[in-house]
Write a structure and sequence with these properties.
about 45% strand, single chain, 5-stranded antiparallel beta sheet, Jelly Rolls
Length: about 170
Amino acid sequence: MLPPRLLLLAATILLTGCPRSARPDDALEPNDDPAQATPLTPGQPVEARANQGNPDVFAVEVPAAGGTLVFLAEDRGLENCPAFTVTGPGPQALFEDVHSFCNRVAEEPRKAPGVELHMRFGAGSDAEAYELRIPTTQPGRYLLTILEQGRVDNAAPFSWDYRLTARLE
């Protein structure tokens, strides 16, 4: 009998054609830190893949204060266990997931006043979409970081495919 880790790896190879750790990054890489952030144009979606241990960073320029910056991340498949962080226009965190593992009871995300996270659920237990609403108290560069979280018992890194759209209201 094979050990559980090898059984999981064999099942992953059979189902996906490659081990999870061999899943390629998306075409937007490298976008792992603020200096390499992928610029977003409001209203124009991008498709990406978040890999566990490899953050995706996106930047939006907000021309004026007093509105709302909305990030909509729609599930396109795979594990779907993201953690989000929004900063801007300086280094202060406006929203920050503080959990380490998916489906684990943890403390609530840290949020600046007025920040909202909404999730839309379909037939399964994972969200079909995540909407982050950020009041724009200052003009400037806002950053969204997406990191695929692990599960307590995972034997290989997870990935999540998503479509991301930013808009200004």
